[in-house]
């Protein structure tokens, strides 16, 4: 009797079973090289079935050594194109061809393979796959009613997070460090449950990392080389809530029923965001809305009337395309984190779908800030009109997001009116923050809070200083005396140039900035020079109106990255420096501890610096 086993039969250990039972005793077993290649590839990727198949091949070698069978490897290894299309049957076809060539019986546990082989006229022995029923996982013993997650790692005692939402503690739940053999046994049980149980599935399977959803548990398994040892992290929700359990439930319920909205549920890790999102999903479903979720991995606790989707072909963008065909009333997006997530969230919201997104943020305003730069500023209120901030499992604040054309907080000139995003406290209906564009930069300003150095102040000082330095050759310092008044101190030699003939130059600057500017010399400054100048240093420095090409300081070569323009300044950490292009002042900055100056791309400073680089101007840096 001659047998050609396929990959499924080898993985399931059915060849050695047939020999041990006597059904294939003395048979000639021809193992295709295509099977070996598949098993090797799976084992290299850390997939357990590959290791199971290799163990079966070792068992066949032992049977051959005992003269129970004759063992031979036949055929060729599949080409790369055949391996990549294994799911389409290319490797199975190679195995069938070998069975036909050697007039052998094809042994398989694959129903499709067996039917195709019979259709080809081959002799086939189909063996039903043996399914081991998993009643439960051994690691469940580490969980009690207060346990949110269990953390198991080679060489470390079992640990767990226990307590209530907002009051978790990380503590040992075992006395002895875990061995690699113990972790390996638990991993095999987890992966088996994912394959065979109707209550489990594999969410992610990559080299070194597998994520499994089994019942209420989301289990991440990490292996070397991705991790420095085998590690199992199992997470389970400890609380299932309803919307009525929360403060502000009536307000939130009214908002959701009024019309489809864009809602961000924000909070720090472990604050209870996903728990609230699950309660919102349940409420919406009970209110006769069609509700879907977008999750990767899927771990929201929702009822069977809410369908949970993950990333289609690895991308949430594809999931969104599918959902737009289904047209749900509301979609719960857990978690909105990367730029792609915010883009998908915005696209679906602007298409008319109600969206509830879960976002990590340490403050409610930070959730809105994460939209800046990812969504056009004026479109933010159309994408998100409500922010719900969660702390310690409770709703702490609800904000309304609105647009209004007005003079921004901190400015008074009527001609500075512009579209302003107002973040309103829903309970008091008072503005808490304003977000607007000022001189090509986005500013977030707390409303009603006093600050010595607000975002507007910093930008105003920067813009005034830049305008003055276009005329002044020496040092200058700016003091804000109110929301629309500033005093500028310059060198005696620069006073006439800055003011201009008949005050024309300073008047032009005032009109451009909408701020009244009083120009004085340093001798007129109470207390003299500050010493902590935001300007360039002493009066001997060359800057501002110097356009004759002379430079002073160290020549540098800035690097432009995706997000920053980086100026290397090794050995100058902590120093304040002045950046120039062909001797013309650009800006002043402090060198980071890493020995570099970073300027965010898109800012006014970065645009000037990039323009200087594009024009091949010599960039120099001098102590300020």
Automatic annotation (TrEMBL):
Keyword Magnesium annotated: no
Keyword RNA-binding: yes
Pfam families: PIN, T2SSE
Domain PIN: 1-115
Region (Disordered): 520-554
Bias-annotated ranges (Low complexity): 543-553
Extent of Gly residues compositional bias: 528-542
Matching Gene3D superfamilies: 5'-nuclease, P-loop containing nucleotide triphosphate hydrolases
MF terms in GO: RNA binding
Keywords of this entry: RNA-binding
PANTHER family in the record: AAA FAMILY ATPASE (PTHR11603), MEMBRANE PROTEIN (PTHR11603:SF147)
Family membership: In the N-terminal section; belongs to the PINc/VapC protein family.
Name of the molecule in the record: ATPase
Organism expressing this protein natively: Halococcus hamelinensis 100A6
């Amino acid at each position: 009797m001659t047998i050609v086993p396929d990959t499924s039969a080898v993985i399931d250990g059915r060849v050695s079973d047939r020999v041990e039972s006597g059904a294939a005793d003395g048979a000639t077993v021809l193992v295709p090289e295509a099977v070996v290649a598949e098993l090797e590839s799976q084992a290299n990727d850390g997939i357990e079935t590959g290791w199971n198949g290799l163990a079966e091949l070792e068992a066949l070698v032992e049977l051959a050594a005992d003269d129970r069978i004759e063992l031979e490897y036949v055929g060729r290894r599949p080409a790369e194109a055949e391996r990549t299309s294994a799911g389409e049957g290319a490797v199975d076809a190679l195995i069938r061809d070998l069975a036909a060539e050697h007039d052998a019986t094809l042994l398989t546990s694959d129903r499709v393979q067996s039917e195709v082989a019979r259709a080809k006229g081959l002799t086939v022995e189909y063996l039903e796959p043996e399914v081991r029923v998993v009643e439960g996982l051994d690691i469940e013993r580490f969980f009690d009613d207060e346990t949110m997650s269990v953390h198991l790692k080679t060489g470390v005692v079992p640990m767990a997070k226990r307590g209530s939402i907002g009051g978790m503690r990380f503590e040992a739940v075992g006395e002895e460090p875990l061995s690699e053999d113990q972790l390996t046994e638990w991993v095999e049980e987890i992966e088996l449950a994912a394959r065979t149980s109707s209550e489990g599935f594999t969410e992610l399977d990559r080299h070194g990392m597998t994520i499994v959803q089994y019942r209420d548990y989301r289990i991440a398994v990490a292996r070397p080389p991705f991790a420095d040892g085998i590690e199992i992290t199992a997470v389970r929700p400890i609380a299932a809530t309803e919307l009525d359990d929360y403060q502000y439930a009536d307000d939130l319920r009214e908002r959701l029923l009024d019309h489809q909205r864009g809602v961000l549920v924000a909070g720090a890790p472990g604050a209870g965001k996903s728990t609230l999102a699950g309660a919102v999903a349940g409420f919406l479903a009970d209110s006769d809305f069609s509700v879907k979720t977008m999750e990767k991995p899927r771990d929201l606790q929702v009822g069977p009337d809410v369908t949970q989707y993950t990333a289609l072909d690895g991308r949430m963008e594809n999931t969104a395309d599918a959902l737009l065909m289904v047209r749900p009333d509301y979609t719960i997006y857990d978690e909105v984190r990367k730029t792609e997530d915010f883009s998908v969230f915005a696209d679906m919201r602007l298409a008319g779908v109600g969206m509830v997104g879960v976002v990590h943020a340490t403050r409610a305003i930070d959730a809105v800030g994460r939209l800046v730069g990812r969504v056009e500023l004026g479109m933010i209120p159309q994408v998100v009109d409500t922010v719900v901030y969660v702390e310690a499992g409770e709703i702490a604040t609800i904000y309304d997001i609105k647009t209004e054309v007005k003079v921004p907080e901190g400015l008074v000139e009527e001609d500075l009116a512009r579209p302003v995003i107002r973040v309103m406290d829903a309970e008091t209906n008072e503005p808490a923050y304003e977000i607007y564009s000022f001189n090509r930069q986005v500013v977030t300003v707390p409303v009603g809070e006093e600050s010595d150095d607000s975002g507007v102040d910093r930008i105003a000082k920067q813009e005034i200083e830049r305008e003055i330095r276009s005329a002044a050759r020496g040092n200058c310092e700016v003091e804000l005396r109110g929301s629309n008044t500033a005093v500028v101190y310059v060198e005696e030699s620069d006073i006439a140039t800055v003011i201009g003939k008949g005050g024309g130059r300073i008047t032009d600057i005032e009109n451009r900035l909408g701020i009244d500017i009083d120009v004085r010399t340093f001798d007129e400054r109470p207390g003299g020079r500050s010493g902590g100048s935001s300007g360039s240093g002493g009066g001997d420095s060359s800057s501002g109106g110097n356009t004759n090409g002379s430079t002073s300081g160290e020549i540098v070569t800035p690097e432009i990255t995706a997000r920053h323009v980086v100026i290397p300044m090794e050995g100058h950490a902590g120093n304040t420096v002045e950046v120039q292009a062909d001797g013309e002042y650009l800006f002043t900055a402090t060198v980071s501890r890493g020995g570099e100056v970073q300027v965010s791309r898109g800012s006014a400073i970065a645009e000037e610096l990039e323009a200087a680089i594009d024009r091949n101007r010599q960039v120099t840096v001098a102590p300020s």
